[in-house]
Known about the structure:
Blueprint: E1 5-8, H1 15-28, E2 32-34, H2 39-43, E3 47-50, E4 56-57, E5 62-63, H3 77-84, H4 88-94, H5 98-107, H6 109-116, H7 120-125, H8 129-140, E6 143-144, H9 149-178, E7 180-184, E8 191-195, H10 210-216, E9 225-229, E10 236-240, E11 258-261, E12 267-270, H11 275-285
Parallel strand pairs: 1-2, 1-3, 3-5, 8-9
Antiparallel strand pairs: 2-6, 4-5, 7-8, 9-10, 10-12, 11-12
Helix pairs in contact: 1-3, 1-9, 5-6
Amino acid sequence: MTMQLIVTHPGGAHKDDFLACSLLAHLHGVPIQRREPTDEDLSNPSICVVDVGGSHDPERNNFDHHQFPRDAPPLCALSLVLKSLELYEDALSFCAWLRPAEWLDTLGPNETAELMKIPRTALSELNSPLDTTLLNRFAKASELHSEDPIYQVMCMVGEDIVNYLRSLRERLDYLAQHAQYWTIEADGEPIRALFLEKSDAIAEDPSFGVYAFIESEGKENEIHALVYPDRRGDGYGLTRYNDNQRLDFSQIESHDDVRFAHKRGFVAKVATTDPTQLKQLLKNAIVKTNR
Length: 291
């Protein structure tokens, strides 16, 4: 179906309606009108009605949540649009900003701060001029078209969210088939590393999605190091996972295979591609504990 129009409410703009409209603007490239919807708008599936209208009907492209009961899950207009694109579950898992955005729009700042375990004042302290300017300029416009700078920025935002989630899903599926877990014996408890073999499929950004994959596997408390192809050369990168202090790669900086080791010990770049040698370098980087 060819979309004709996006309609969202007039007045103040919030992050959820701005981002929901950004996704739809990127996907459909149609004008955005900020006004109350008509019954004809709501019944016309070629018009997306966002965060207004009292209807959630994805088949008719109606994405409002305000009619949901008080005890309903905290879904906002952005959540509903992501669900319609079959991107919501991945967004919830891998976009740390989504759940707070849902809470803020549906529960208000006090409950959001409580759920985030931060002071209420921290919410405003974390706002930036980018948030303020984009939302204010969006709120002031009664209609936006593709030639408007705010519309163009919205399309960029929507494109980046969609591309990130779709490419991340592809990468997670790839990692599920190709990632290897190494166990490196040590004097004390062994360390575990995730290893990625060189491949054209990941050559552009070898480490993309690795953290999300480890979390999706439930191994964030097991992994100590990552070993992945160096996109700047023929060798590999060695890095601490979540800055795990059991490894200090400055300990291997004098090794012939090591091109670079950061003085702080959190990363090294090595020339070798041999798994046996890579495992030995990891072993040599393990911090010895005093007994």
